[in-house]
Amino acid sequence: MIIGIPGEIKDHEYRIALTPGGVRDLVAAGHRVLVERGGGAGSGFADTDYQSVGAELVPAAADAWGAELVVKVKEPQPAEYAFLRPDLVLFTFLHLAAEERLTREMVSRGVTGVAYETVEGADGSLPLLTPMSEVAGRMAVQVAASYLEKSHGGRGILMGGVPGVRPAQVVVLGGGVVGSNAARIALGMGASVVLIDRDMDRLRFLEAVLHDKGRLTTLFSNTLNIARSVQEADVLIGAVLMRGARAPRLVTREMVRSMAAGSVVIDVAVDQGGALRPPTRRPIPTRRFWWTGLFTTAWRICRARCRAPARLPWGMRPCPM
Which of 6, 126, 166, 256 has CB atoms 3.0–4.6 Å from 61's, for a disulfide? Predict the structure, then answer.
């Protein structure tokens, strides 16, 4: 099979779909791999790294998109729609629940799309989404700690506090992979964490495994518990996932407005439409608080390398045509 790996053009996206190690395995299996020149630079991979393992470097994105199977990181951007065609298999994150225009384009152009976030293992797990969720949950707290600094417009609160001064209050909506990783890191930094989920068995499990990490409170998800927790939060992290569907809007604009000035709001579910509503129509920093969709691509090397081992076995399977 001819496999194309174009460079990513989405804003702030620095990753590449496959590492040189992954390309080497594909070439060894008898496939021809086309990599766009410069495509791996953002992840720390030189063109020579791909050439040395048997990849063919192509000068333009159109050349990589001309392959039978195209492997990407993020969903096609409008400038890439023209590359979609009936005989193409596209393997990438798609997040179609929040992308109506892209969905219609893919249907009208007859492309076969395989979305990483919907690939399930035999046990119902999400093997291609899990590594990304682990990174996103951990880095969400790191980003939040930075934005809490007064120099970044935050409240000037230290995550772990100091003797005589309370720690930051971190509220995490969702106890899945993202939420549990976010809670673990926040607790490790000494913050007080409120973890909200609608699955009582999951809350029992997380309370059992995280109880020795610090100050943890688990709450069942309902409107009242969410509203009260959001109002008291220094950091609010949205970590809600509905498989194959748009994330539910659990936090209203009124709830966000109730937060103290300089609070930090991070919505990891933004690719699926977002679980939180900003106080304005545009999710940008305001004078009351900092709002970010969490640019997970900033940790490009970690994400590129942790994702590749999970993706490769699926990419080498027979593709639907």
Answer: 6
